[in-house]
């Protein structure tokens, strides 16, 4: 059995990724931030399908807690699976804030940086000693960091995701000595709770986004979760250093 660590799995893409990965006879350690109930619900959904899951709290923006989190993960691996290592890491936890450059505060910029770029960087660094050789990492990026089709207001968020794309390639280069593959996925507009549940609050924006998408709808979390599960699996054993847009052909 393989074991995966999936951050930000209390809802949306992270929940879907955790459930999809678990379907492939993979045990899952999933993390949640403010939404403890959501994290427990994800774990329960995995266990209802015959899988094994453990939900842990983690603030990806608080890098000072990562050493203690690593120790907790090591304990869970021993107690739950009688293992010293895990196989897959999905750096998915995140949040979004939008504002024009002229209106963006340093506080907003710094909080996005801590969660979206510094968090994955140092969490991966801390967990790397617990990863098996031949494992896989997937970082959740965003098509807001693409070179065309930009929307005003995403400058800070997309800059961090652009940094994550570069980090993905460097991780793939450096970790290749241990045969650990590293890829990113870049979702387009996806029906999640991001940006304070924006799609639930502003459903009127959905038809316009669907009209700009070649396949004619906005994304669902399962669309992205299935791709993440595929990328960590042996099906993608010859794929590394890639950033795969999973957007249904947005702005095609």
From TrEMBL:
Keyword terms of this UniProt record: Oxidoreductase
**In which domain of life is the source organism classified?**
Bacteria
| UniProt entry tagged with the keyword Oxidoreductase | yes
Q: Which Gene3D superfamilies match?
A: NAD(P)-binding Rossmann-like Domain
**InterPro entries linked:** NAD(P)-bd_dom_sf, SDR_fam
Q: Which Pfam families match?
A: adh_short_C2
Give the family this protein belongs to, as stated in its UniProt record.
Belongs to the short-chain dehydrogenases/reductases (SDR) family.
Q: State the protein's name.
A: SDR family oxidoreductase
Organism encoding this protein: Streptomyces plumbiresistens
